[in-house]
Every structure is written in C-alpha cells, then in structure tokens.
Amino acid sequence: MAKHHVTAKVNGDHVEFLCETHQTLLDVLRDELGLTGTKEGCGTGDCGACSVTIDGRLTCSCLVLGVEAEGKAIQTIEGMAAGTELHPLQRKFLEHAALQCGICTPGILIAARSLLERNPDPTEEEVRYWLAGNLCRCTGYHKIIDAVLDAAREMRKD
C-alpha cells in the first residue's frame, strides 16, 4: 500500500509523517510520532480517551484519518505542560486526586482545557455537560469536576 506524506503542526512543532490511508490520527500520533499520551479506549468515538484538538476543535482522534491532519494544528496531552511546569488543570487533577488508572485522564484534560479556553468561568453544570463525552470507569466524576472548577478559578485569578 502507498503511504501518504502529511505535514502538520503538533503541539506547536512542525511535523511530517508517512501514513497509510486507513490509519487513524490516533494510530499516527502513537505509532508514527511516538506521542503515546493519547489513549485508545473504544475506537468508536464513544469514550473520549483519544481526545485532541484539531485547529482548536475538540475531536476524537480515533474518528479522524491521519491523512486528514494535512495542514492542521493538533494539540495533544504532551503539549499541555510548559516544559516541566504543569498546566493548572494537571496540577488540580493531582491535588484533587481526580485520576486513578489514567486511561481517560489525557482526554479529560484536553476536553477541560478546550472548555476553559472557550468559557473561563463555567458552572458545574457546564463542566459536566462539556465532559459528558469522556467516560471514566475508575473514579466518580465529582473529583474531576471539582478539579476543573478549581483550575478555572486559579486561571481567572479569583
């Protein structure tokens, strides 16, 4: 099978890769680019574990083909921290113990960041609605919601 040459911007870095027509963006991120933070939970877009942003839009990377990344700006969990300094959401997830096994955590963090970029002062209901596409099988969602709301307060400097 012929491979396609794709150029994109991933976490602010220009990247080039070769991929087969049927490869998902999730597979390309993990297998071709070595960005294994994005997880596969279901492969059908139902769990949110593979969430990334593409040109600022929250997307399940298991539902996008790698060739569709041509010319796009993609943000993954690996681009969330600034060097060794964690993003406020990452810190608050640790402080609130809002994670257990970690499979869903990268997708939830990406989704939460996407929400806070659009709405820096969400209500609890808005956070719950925005994160409804992210399933967690280990924790209750209460700590996750608390962590997002706490991060939002910190990011607003309330």
Short description:
This protein is α+β, with helices and mostly antiparallel strands. It has 5 helices and 5 strands; from the N terminus they run ββαβββαααα. It folds into 2 domains: 3-78, Ubiquitin-like (UB roll); 88-156, [2Fe-2S]-binding domain (DNA polymerase, domain 1), CATH 1.10.150.120.
Structure explained in plain terms:
- This protein is an alpha+beta fold.
- It has two domains: 76 residues, Beta-grasp domain (Ubiquitin-like (UB roll)); 69 residues, DNA polymerase, domain 1, CATH 1.10.150.
- Helix content is 33%, strand content 17%.
- It contains five helices and five strands, in the order E-E-H-E-E-E-H-H-H-H.
- A five-stranded mixed sheet has the order 2-1-5-3-4, sandwiched between helices.
- Strand 1 and strand 2 form a beta hairpin.
- The longest helix has 15 residues.
- It is globular.
- The termini are far apart.
- The mean pLDDT is 96.
Summarize the helices and strands and which ones pair or pack.
Blueprint: E1 3-10, E2 13-20, H1 25-32, E3 51-54, E4 57-60, E5 73-75, H2 88-95, H3 105-118, H4 124-130, H5 142-156
Parallel strand pairs: 1-5
Antiparallel strand pairs: 1-2, 3-4, 3-5
Average per-residue pLDDT, rounded, comes to: 96
- Please identify the structural class as seen in this structure: alpha+beta
The major pleated sheet works out as:
5 strands, mixed
Low-confidence stretches: none
Number of strand segments: 5
What CATH architecture of the largest domain would you give?
Roll
As a percent range, the share of strand residues is 15-25%
Give the SSE string: EEHEEEHHHH
Overall, the morphology is globular
